Every structure is written in C-alpha cells, then in structure tokens.
User: Which sequence fits this backbone?
C-alpha cells in the first residue's frame, strides 16, 4: 500500500496533540492525550502509541503511514533523543531515546523529532505567516518561551542539535526570577504565560494598585488578558512590561541573524492587541539603527492546535 | 593570462591591510594604508587603488588578479555597500557603494565584500583554528567587537546581508555606556580594546585602589595588559570584569546557534592568559546545563595581519 500519510505529534507540558496528515496538510484525524499523568516515559510512550493507533484507524490509514514527526521540548533532531526537558514531568531524568522507543512501539514506523518550537517554525514556513521567508525567528509564547530559528530556509540545529533556546537567554541579569532550568532571569520567566502570571502576583503583592485581578485566587495569564480587555490598568501595565522585555531581547536576536521577521505563536500571542506596541517600541529602541522599523513582527496565521501537528508532521516527510 | 591570484583587503578603523594571495593561501605581497586620514570615501578608494596596483606590481601579478575580497565594517555581502559604519571616519554618511567604486578604480576587477568579522571567520575556517568546524562563532576583539557566525559551514548573512552584529547586543541593560552606534550598554563598549581602556579610566576615577595605571596619561588596553602581566591587581580585576561580560553574552549566543566553539581573535585576544578563566566561568554559569563545559573557547591560530587578508581573500575566489 502506498505510504501517502504522515503523523504529527506535538508534545507539550500538559497535553500532547497527535494528528494524521496528508500531503496537502489536511489533518484527517486527531486526538489529545495527557503528558503529565506519569513521571516515567515508558507509560507515556505506551499511551501515545494507543492514541496513534486509534487515529490511524479513525482515518482509515492502516499501512499508509510513511513516518512520524514529533515536536517535543529539548528534542534533538540529530539523535532522536530528549535531553533534560525540565518542562516535562517524565523528561527530567537525563537522556531519553524517545524516537527509538516510539519507533518500536509503533512497529517500525520511522520517527523524526525536534523541539516543539522548531516544529512550529517548520509549520509556519510551510503553511503559515512565514511562507516564502528564508530568514525568520519563530517565538512560541506558551508555558515556556520556545524558539525556532530559520536561516537561509533551513531550521538551525547547531553543532549538537539543540540550537534555538532563546527562552533561556538572559532577560534580567541581576536578581532575575528563578527558572525551571536552574538559572535566573531567563526570558521565559518573564515573557511566557507563567511569566505573565508571576508578574501579576508579584505586582499585586508589592503595590496597592487597585485591579480586577485582586479578587482572583490563582491568577493565570488568561486572567490578566481578560482584565486587560476590561481596561484594567495593572493588567495593561503587565503586558506593557512583558512586551518591553520581549522587544529588548528581540533586538539582540535581530543583531544575531538579521531575520526578515519575528513570528509570534502560542497562547500568550493571543494578547496581540496589548503586546505589539510595547514589543515594537522596545525592539526599535534597542536594535542598531540599520534595522529600526525594518524587521516585521507577525503573528501565526495557523490554528494553534493544527500548527503544532502540521509542523511536526512536516518532519515526517523527510524520513 | 591565467587569473590565478586574488587580493584580500581588511579595512579597519585606523589602517587597511591589503595583500596578493595565491590559491594555497600564501600572501605574495602586502601593504598597509591609513583609513583615517580623510572623511570622504573617494580619496580613500583612490589611495587604496594606488596601494593595490603597487602590490600587484610587487608580486608580478599584473593581469593575474581574479577578484578582490574586502572585509569592512558594516559591509553588505549581498549589495557590496557599506552602510552607516560608525567606526570608519568616512563611513558614517549613509550608504556607500564601496564594491562598485573599487571595481571601477581597479579597471573592472570583480569585488566582493563582507564585514571584517565575517571575513575573519572565513579565514579561520579555511586556514585556522576553526578548520573542519561547521558551526562556530568568531568574535573579533579590536577597536570594536565584531562577529562572524558560521552555521552548517556557511557564514550567516541574514535577510539583508548584515547579520552578526554581536558587538551591539546588550551587555548592560540599565545605565550602560554610550556606544558609537547611538545605543547604550552594547557589548563592545565593555569588551573591546577601547572598552577595556574605558573600564580602566572609570575605575581609577571612582576608587582609590593603587595601580601602575595611575601614572599613565592616556590609558590603552595595551597598558592594562602590561600592568596585568606585572601582577597589578586593578588591571587583573579589569580583565576579570571584561571576561565576565564576554562570558555572559557568549552564553546567550550559545543558546542561539549551539556552536561547537567560540573563536577569539584581535588585539585584545592577546590577553588570553587573563581572559580565558573569567570568560569560561561566566559562560558556564549563564548557559543552559546541557552546554555547560561543552562549547570550546579557542583563540585564532593565524598571524593577525595575515588572518584578515586571507579571510577577505577567500571571498574573492567566489567571484
């Protein structure tokens, strides 16, 4: 039978999304499983294989799967391993031979993996806002801050396969917030969904400023977003601060690879209306004059769940 | 006659070095001219052409020059232009069609240019410490801080040809030193030869610490280097500080492109004995655990003047 379909899997901190995809980029069947109900990788791989077999059956795709592409935090394109993935409950035990394990669990279907942000960049380049671009930087604003860097039309993997960890570049040098990675002041401790929630809790604590957020118990970035939409001044200031931090670091990134655009994606990117202006302002204030006003700031044009599956699936055509 | 030779030109803030180079990388004839005795580009191009014609005659190379490669601050590989080069006396007037002008002045010999640090990276990749490496970052520590980024064996030029301005990424976010580029806190205001001299003058001014440097009028980084060799405590602290700033930023760069090595080159790199330890320490303290102790810090193995000429000359084989 012709192998005319691929599978894309996006492994996230809380959930993993899987889909069967055809050559045109149509998602024929998809499902979601939990990533955080075990701290061992074996049971996770087992439930992933169950889920894949189910969607293969749903799509009538038995015998037609050419390959499986996986986007996973700290996934190594060269080795197929996941190394010290601090945001995955089962990922923080050194090196996991993820691609090999899934390959075996799926009876020999080839598996390629990369980190989730690189996969998102591939999706955006193939189907989304970066179509036709040869040089761009994808920034995913989710639980953490991920990045996929494209130079000359190719995703940058670097010497060891782990390039593009821009969420862990330093945003605040002194007294920065502790990060899951063990460092302090990383960009993702400020500019991720959790970072925005941390800013909210911190500022509510140290100021008396009235805010809709004061009535809430366990503040999330979504709460801050909703409050900002209501015109809440503190919430608006939180996005201004978040945007400034992002724009300051984007300036550094532009000075590295001179991209045509920075593409934003992920849950927090929904706060576009509140983030764009402070990002652009800080980018222009901090970048060399030659790039001022020249690098586009664009938002993903793909449906969030589809983008991750499509991006990961793009890897599978290469097997 | 066979076009079997090329010319390499390294344009620096004070002087420009030119050489006739053969296919084996032997510099057959070379000379140096001043870059800073005019604030107009036309007379500079004229004296450059005179100098080139002289070394062509010296090398018996009339009719044998295949192309000219130029390394010049803010040189654009794609367009052959020099744009807003703040460190060049005649370069700060918008866009200069440098390659075209030199092409005409040299009676139609093809000219390719890139910035000086990219040229140095090509030299190091072809003949020096980065031979065989596909992923490395070249950092030139001279009057300013330049960088040439190599990914997958190719110099990164980016969307517009200007990628790799790591000397202008932000080292000190608040109250940083003013930079020639108009921004503040740029890496090169701390970690260049002039940055080291600034640190010395600043610290002599704000402390009472005894130092050999106190007796000097117009302190240069060379003075600080000589004092450090004498065991001068303040001078040693200055290099420790400089190394820390470099290492902190190198950590960010590693998180971007995951290089195999960072290659240091330029006048200030002679202070290797005082810089290596603080750089390495700060790199390891600030980079993600997965790269700790894994990215090599190496120093150029080429003679400084030759490296620049050879690097630039490598471009000329591509014409």
Assistant:
């Amino acid at each position: 039978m012709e192998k005319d379909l691929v599978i894309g899997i996006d492994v996230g901190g809380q959930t993993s999304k899987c889909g069967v995809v055809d050559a045109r980029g149509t998602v024929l069947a998809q499902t979601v499983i939990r990533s955080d109900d075990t701290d061992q990788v074996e049971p996770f791989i087992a439930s992933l294989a169950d889920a894949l077999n189910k969607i293969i059956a749903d799509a009538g795709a038995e015998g037609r799967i050419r390959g499986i592409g996986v986007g996973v935090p700290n996934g190594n394109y060269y080795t197929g391993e996941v190394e010290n993935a601090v945001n995955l409950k089962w990922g923080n035990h050194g090196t996991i031979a993820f691609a090999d394990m899934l390959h075996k669990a799926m009876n020999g279907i080839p598996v390629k993996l990369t980190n989730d942000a690189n996969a998102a960049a591939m999706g955006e380049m193939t189907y989304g806002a970066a179509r036709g671009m040869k040089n761009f930087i994808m920034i995913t604003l989710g639980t953490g801050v991920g990045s996929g860097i494209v130079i000359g039309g190719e995703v940058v993997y670097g010497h060891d396969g782990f390039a593009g960890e821009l969420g862990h570049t330093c945003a605040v040098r002194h007294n920065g917030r502790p990060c899951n990675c063990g460092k302090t002041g990383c960009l993702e401790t400020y500019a991720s969904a959790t970072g925005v929630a941390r800013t909210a809790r911190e500022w509510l604590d140290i100021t008396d400023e009235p805010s809709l957020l004061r009535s809430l118990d366990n503040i999330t970035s979504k709460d801050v977003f909703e409050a900002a939409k209501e015109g809440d001044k503190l919430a608006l200031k939180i996005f201004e601060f978040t945007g400034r931090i992002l724009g300051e670091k984007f300036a550094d990134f532009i000075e590295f690879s001179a991209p045509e655009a920075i593409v934003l994606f992920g849950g927090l990117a929904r706060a576009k209306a509140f983030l764009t202006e402070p990002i652009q302002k800080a980018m222009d204030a901090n970048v060399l004059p030659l790039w001022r006003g020249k690098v586009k700031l664009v938002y993903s044009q793909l449906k969030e769940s589809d983008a991750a599956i499509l991006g990961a699936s793009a890897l599978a055509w290469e097997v």
User: Anything to note?
Assistant: DSSP finds nine helices and twelve strands in chain A. The longest strand of chain A covers residues 15-22.
